[in-house]
Specification:
Length: about 270
């Protein structure tokens, strides 16, 4: 899970740009400016107060339909003339944004933090559009109090742990199988229990333990191949340490957490040479 900055466009900027594209619209975009601004102001205020699960008090003005707001997003931002802005939102200026939830896959969609069905006035609000991969986007549906990359920041906090699972050896022989791995959120990793709750809810909904285990299966396979040729514990640790340094990633990333777990594990020590 990573912190991100929204693009420097307001809800009203995007609405004003996209609304005239709707066919059969009679009112000019300015007619609805107050509500579009108010919905964004409410979102910012509630997020800054860490009240991410709030219900909106800003109602759709008469003359503006929920279906129009959904269409603004689907047909005119994601799928139409606004695509350039959409790409900037999800991919960032350099086109390399990773998904804000799993931080592994490339961001190729925008997840509505406040769902457009319940908060149609935020359908094209940049601060409500979270760069995410399609898998995470699909899995975060319906999670009300989840990690918000624009307001939450884990910094360097060590929030993740990894455990290895393997068949224990028989008759004094070491394990000769590649272990399975399970990731989990460290309970109470920060004093801010609400943030810990959001991280846990997002982690669980995105099924990150299983997805990361699949993602890194080849890493542990590689260690197994190399380490099983070495008999000394010191040499085995050394190859993992080399990987830790060579493929540098933040200490709280799943890759680094996995490598450190493997380096200090009984599995590596007892591995059948
Ligand atoms: Zn993702």
């Amino acid at each position: 899970m990573r912190h991100a900055e929204p693009i420097a466009l307001s809800n009203l900027d995007l609405f004003s740009r996209l609304y005239p594209r709707l066919r059969n619209t009679v009112d000019p975009a300015e007619t609805f400016a107050d509500e579009i601004r108010a919905a964004e102001a409410e979102y910012i205020e509630q997020c800054e107060r860490q009240n991410f699960g709030y219900d909106t008090r800003v109602t759709l003005p008469s003359g503006l339909l929920k279906t129009q707001m959904v269409s603004l997003y689907e047909s005119h931002l994601r799928g139409g003339s606004g695509r350039e802005v959409y790409d900037l939102i999800i991919e960032g200026e350099h086109g390399t944004n990773k998904c804000c939830y799993c931080n592994i896959r490339a961001a190729d969609t925008a997840d509505h933090y406040k769902e457009k069905a319940e908060h149609p006035l935020l359908a094209v609000c940049p601060r409500n559009l979270i760069p995410s991969c399609s898998k995470c986007n699909e899995k975060q549906k319906g999670v009300r109090e989840k990690f918000n990359p624009f307001y939450d920041d884990l910094g360097g906090a060590l929030w993740l742990r990894c455990t290895l699972e393997w068949a224990r050896h028989k008759r004094g022989m070491g394990p000769d199988t590649i272990p399975g791995m399970r990731f989990s959120v460290i309970p109470g990793f920060l004093p801010d229990t609400a943030l810990v709750g959001r991280v846990s809810a997002t982690f669980k909904a995105a099924n990150l333990s299983k997805r990361w285990a699949t993602e890194y299966a080849d890493v542990i396979g590689r260690i197994h191949r190399k380490a099983s040729k070495l008999s000394r514990q010191h040499d085995r640790k050394f190859i993992v340490d080399e990987m830790i340094q060579y493929d540098w990633q933040p200490p709280n990333s799943p890759y680094q957490v996995l490598l450190k777990t493997v380096r200090d594990s009984d599995w590596l020590r007892d591995l059948k040479g």
